[in-house]
Design a protein that fits this description.
By secondary structure, the protein is an all-alpha fold. Helix content is 70%, strand content 2%. Helix 11 packs across helix 21 and helix 16 packs antiparallel against helix 17.
């Protein structure tokens, strides 16, 4: 069978599996819709959390950015992995001890304020819609290439699938669907990586092949060969870095604290039965995440080496089929500037002009084709990419729907609403969110990983400080929390919009504040949030005594497994 036939087969089977799981595990109450009834086993929750977190950015775009940025791309790897350490140590067990459905629920109760709750809801939706744009773009890219349809039509198909199992199953359906999606995505990521590692270095494990010599008998290390190819074609050495140390630090920090402040990840720790299970599931998630994240640098190096070896100085009539297939999607663009009929792929340091533009988001998807792997492996990667994008999109849409139905409707607008009506409202909100997410997928503000990085910056500047202060500072009050969230997200959002929306021509280190890129500005937004929240809290009345006792109870559990009843 050809690639398209294999793709239809594997993607169709995987979609049937997801829909079947969603029907089997559909939610029948608000507790099951919001937090799967709080009865998910830590290992299962860890696997679902890994799928929720390893989005299209991790599967499709991270290795692509590392392939094009070299050492600078490692900020995504370090930031997203380090964020989970923060999450496991500083946030997950304490929020599970608190026992509420959502982050706005925690903010509203901890800061004894409906205004704080509304601000948190707005921040959650802002972050979630930014994040989900990257997922929908990833879905469109996969469908565009492997099913030979327009990217926009691919986004519409993804919207339909996510709508079905997110709206029907809620958190319960999403949890078990994400377990299936994790199995698909990790298998799809590792199989081609192992194949290519064997072909290029003779080493089975890609993590070891990354630092090994080539299998051609030359004795040259893979990274040395890649550095040499890069310099020959006018690119900077692959192992060199071009970003300033401050910007690297800022991006890494924003991704780390953004991970620890992402509402769709935090809510996963309400699905386990007790506090100890929350910490355990965070540990299991790290194990499952590490399988992909330790493989990504190797995938990036393999893909970049094969790319530079394959298309440079090749007559256009002789380019491999994968080149023209991706060219048809618009994600590879070739223009014969000098009329010699050769494909000149050149970097900024080359004498000849560059004639090829390649979207970094295609590298993982095209990698098996570039390496001439069997067609079923190529289709498997497509199925894995869809699993990664759809799993995270579902989690984000659930955050949006619960923010509207539970935090706004139930807690503020109509407290006496019945459970049935609240569940209907949550499903309607999820449906509306799918439509809006589809729009952002069709009109994204950047590459998948870059869009997601912006969402992490927004989460870092809005949620992380108020969560940390809410857990560890009895003195922080509602005035401080509200002021901190508003200032933090406005500063970060305005900076991102200025350089990404209004003045993209100025989006370079020369014009950035202190040389910090939009992807890293969330770190400054976070520090600003902390400073404002602490300062305002010191000049306004302290929280009520019962709130201070609540904080102490959250921070110092009376026993490791003790927790409030879900929804209490």
């Amino acid at each position: 069978m050809n690639v398209q036939a294999w793709t239809f087969t594997l993607v169709g089977l995987s979609f049937a599996l997801y829909i079947g799981v969603a029907i089997w595990s559909r939610a029948r109450s608000t507790g099951e819709f919001y937090v799967a009834g709080g009865r998910v086993h830590p290992v299962i929750n860890g696997m679902a959390t890994a799928a929720d977190w390893m989005s299209a950015a991790s599967f499709i775009s991270m290795a692509g950015l590392i392939a094009f940025m070299g050492r600078d791309g490692s900020v995504y790897l370090m930031g997203w992995t380090g964020g989970y350490v923060l999450l496991a140590l500083l946030i997950a067990p304490y929020l599970r001890k608190f026992g509420k459905f959502t982050v706005p629920d925690f903010v509203g109760d901890r800061y004894y304020s409906s205004v704080a709750r509304v601000v948190a809801v707005v921040c959650a939706m802002f972050v979630s819609f930014t994040y989900v744009a990257g997922q929908m773009r990833g879905v469109g890219i996969v469908f565009s290439r492997f099913l030979n349809i327009d990217i926009n039509h691919g986004v519409f198909i993804g919207m339909g699938i996510v709508f079905f199992y997110a709206v029907l199953g809620g958190m319960k359906g999403i949890t078990y669907t994400q377990v299936a999606q994790y199995c698909v995505l990790i298998f799809a990521y590792l199989v081609p990586a192992i194949f290519i590692s064997l072909l290029m270095t003779g080493v089975v494990l890609p993590q070891l092949g990354f630092g090994s010599t080539l299998a051609d008998g030359s004795g040259v290390f893979l990274l040395d060969k890649l550095d040499g190819l890069s310099r020959e074609l006018g690119f900077d050495a692959y192992t060199s870095g071009q970003r300033s140390t401050l910007d690297v630090f800022a991006i890494t920090a924003a991704l780390m604290v953004g991970t620890a402040g992402l509402p769709h990840v935090i809510v996963r720790f309400y699905t386990v039965p007790k506090v100890a299970a929350a910490r355990s599931s965070a540990g299991w998630a790290l194990v499952f995440i590490a399988l992909l994240y330790t493989t990504a640098p190797a995938v990036a190096a393999f893909a970049r080496t094969n790319l530079l070896s394959t298309i440079a100085e090749v007559p256009y009539q002789e380019v491999p089929p994968w080149f023209t297939s991706w060219e048809a999607t618009g994600l590879i663009q070739y223009q014969d500037l000098n009329g010699d009929g050769l494909v000149q792929y050149r970097g900024p340091n080359a004498e000849l002009a560059n004639e090829v533009q390649i979207d970094p988001d295609i590298m993982v998807l095209a990698n098996p084709e570039i390496a001439n792997l069997p067609t079923w492996v190529v289709a498997l990667v497509a199925a894995g990419a869809l699993a990664a994008a759809l799993s995270t999109a579902a989690g984000l849409l659930l955050v949006i729907s619960t923010s509207v139905a539970h935090d706004l409707l139930k807690r503020i607008i109509k407290p006496d609403i019945s459970e049935r009506d609240e569940l209907i409202a949550a499903r309607v909100a999820a449906g509306v969110a799918v439509v809006i997410a589809g729009y952002f997928g069709i009109n994204p503000p950047g590459f998948v990983a870059q869009v997601v990085a912006l969402a992490f910056g927004l989460a870092a500047s809005s949620f992380f400080p108020v969560i940390i202060l809410g857990i560890f500072s009895k003195r922080t009050n509602k005035e401080g929390a509200i002021a901190g969230m508003v200032i933090g997200i406005l500063f970060t959002g305005a900076y991102i919009l200025y350089f990404k929306g209004f003045h993209p021509e100025l989006n370079n280190a020369e014009h950035w504040f202190l040389g910090i890129s939009p992807e890293g500005i969330g770190t400054l937004g976070m520090l600003l949030n902390f400073a404002v929240a602490i300062s305002v809290s010191r000049i306004t009345p302290p929280p009520p005594e019962e709130i201070q006792r609540m904080v102490e109870e959250i921070r110092i559990p009376r026993s490791a497994g003790e927790a409030r009843e879900i929804g209490a």
